[in-house]
Backbone:
DNA sequence: GATTCGAGTTGACAGCGGTTAACATTTCGA
DNA sequence: TCGAAATGTTAACCGCTGTCAACTCGAATC
């Protein structure tokens, strides 16, 4: 259930009604599973449910969701930084690990990973008090040609895409420059490191960056 | 269920019928829970069950049990050696961790902990192929007065006792000498480090040692 | 505005893992 | 040896989390 909560938070359940289908999709479960979980969580005061509309976190649910997100992202950072997992490998294991981690284990993973502020994908890690600093970033597809930027988050789940992006050097902290764009949601050409690569629009949209003023 | 399997192995289920009560006691669950699990595991070919007698591991069950024991003990070693847990704190967390750990995570914890051969309590860790080297040790209560020995395993579960023993320096690898024994299962006096302590018979019986020839 | 289709909900089922209560068996002592 | 006590088993229940099927609701289209 911690995972449901975390996923709901990630989907923006703090500010809007998240429909069961979307939630289920993100969790990799059937729609009825998500719908019924909404019921359970409503009974526990974690979400408010508007029938046929979706679920939205209550303030209690937000707190718990942040805990879950923190546990998950710290687990991911820990697996990658301490145990040497690749960023494409850590996700599932981090799910299971985040679910069984109590306060103590979370604290220790945090320390062992060097108190990271971002998970390996660049998502910010809530602090122990539930504080969360949202990066001032935007999708790569917002940038104009010529713009320089730094990769902030790589909001991709798919293994193969993650491997590909890592090979290209498109990881958080990487500097890049938009070298070209095709119109009508066409592919984006990006200089990164001393190479260049072409990203389909859908993929480029999942890469969030912080503009560099220069 | 991995935990049931591991516990059954630990209780000697390889060589004897382990009665439900003993199993349940070790798992901290009710007797019916253990009994029913025996049924499930029998259906899966993991144990042979003799009604009202107990359950014994099949060769398949032995393999799986060893996997569970390996995962658990490596998790314990990992928590203590890498994350800085105290040996009295690691057990519960290691249970949960061992349960969710797949091959990959076990491998990585093994490497991160420095390929330990014993868990923090001194219990041997099966290797990845299911090989297990049993130490040639015996309960402290077997020794005669004056005998020197090295602590091999501390087969104690209780938190407070573990803390006490650690304070006394009675941990695996520690050298000791039996300084005195009272008759009729009376307490045992032990020199360890440059101190001395007195252990009740029941506690002393849980401390397994390897004789030193000198 | 009626209809239809997509999406959400609810119900029935399954399996795990826990409980207590009722029943069966084994064992031990009078 | 027989009966009581201790121990093991089974049944019934609960809650979680998953499924599929059937139903219901809302929205979009004609």
Residues:
């Amino acid at each position: 259930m911690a995972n449901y909560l975390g996923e709901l938070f990630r989907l923006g359940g703090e500010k809007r009604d998240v429909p069961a289908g979307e939630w289920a999709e993100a969790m990799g479960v059937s729609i009825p599973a998500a719908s019924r979980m909404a019921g359970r969580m409503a009974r526990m005061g974690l979400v408010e449910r508007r029938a046929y509309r979706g679920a939205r976190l209550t303030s209690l649910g937000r707190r718990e969701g942040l805990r879950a997100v923190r546990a998950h992202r710290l687990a991911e950072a820990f697996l990658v930084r301490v145990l040497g997992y690749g960023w494409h490998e850590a996700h599932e294991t981090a799910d299971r690990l985040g679910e069984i981690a109590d306060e103590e284990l979370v604290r220790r993973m945090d320390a062992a990973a060097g108190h990271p502020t971002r998970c390996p994908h660049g998502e910010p890690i809530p602090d122990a008090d539930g504080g969360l600093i949202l990066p001032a970033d935007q999708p790569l597809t917002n940038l104009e040609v010529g713009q320089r930027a730094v990769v902030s988050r790589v909001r991709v789940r798919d293994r193969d895409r993650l491997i590909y992006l890592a090979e290209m050097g498109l990881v958080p902290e990487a500097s890049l420059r938009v070298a070209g764009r095709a119109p009508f949601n066409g592919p984006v050409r990006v200089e990164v490191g001393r190479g260049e690569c072409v990203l389909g629009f859908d993929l480029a949209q999942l890469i969030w960056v912080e503009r560099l003023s220069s």
